[in-house]
What we know:
Elements: E1 2-7, H1 13-24, E2 27-29, H2 39-44, H3 46-70, E3 75-78, H4 81-94, H5 100-114, E4 122-127, H6 130-140, H7 150-165, E5 171-176, H8 186-201
Parallel strand pairs: 1-3, 1-4, 2-3, 4-5
Helix pairs in contact: 3-4, 3-5, 4-5, 4-7
Amino acid sequence: MHIAIAGNIGAGKTTLTRMLAKHYKWIAQYEDVEDNPYLDDFYNQMERWSFNLQVYFLNSRFRQILDIREQKKTVIQDRTIYEDAFIFAPNLHAMGLMTNRDYKNYRSLFDLMESVTQPPDLLIYLRSSIENLVKQIHKRGREYENSISIDYLSRLNERYEAWIHNYDKGNLLIVDVDNLDFVDNPEHLGDIINRIDAEINGLF
C-alpha cells in the first residue's frame, strides 16, 4: 500500500511521516532535501534555478514511485509528485520565475511520468494557515528557507487548496494542523492515527 503526505512548506509532513512510519512499521520515503544540489542556489536566485530544481525533484519523486511499486510492504511518502507538477512548478511559472519554454518541457516530462505511475492509495493533506507555516519554518531553522516570503507561501497555499478541492485520484484525508501538536501531544497524534485507521480499513 502507498500512503502519501501532502502539504505546504512547514506544514509538518516530514515529522508526521516519521511518526506514522514508526507507529505502523511502514517504510518511509523522504523528500530529497539534504542532498539536493539546487536548493541553496534556488532560494538565492529563483529565476535562474527554478527549472533545474523542479526537474531534480520530479526525477527524485518518480524514482521513489518506481521503488514503492517494487516494495511488498506499505510505504509512506513525504510529499507527492503531484505537488511538484500542480503547485510548485505552475506557481514559479505564474510568478515569472520559470520561462514558458521550460514550463512546457517540465509539464511534458511530468505527463509522461504520470502515464506510467499509480496514485497513492491514501493521500493525507496537512492544511495549515500561513501564520503556522511561518512559525514552523522559523522553528526548524533551515538557513536556505530564511528568504521564503509570506507572498510565496500564500501563493502556494492557494494552489494547494485548489488542488485538494479537485483531487479525485484516490482516497483523501484532510488534517487541519493549526491547532494540533502531534509531536508533543499523544492525544493529537492518536486522533490522526484513528482517522487513518478508519480510512485504511475502508481500503480493503
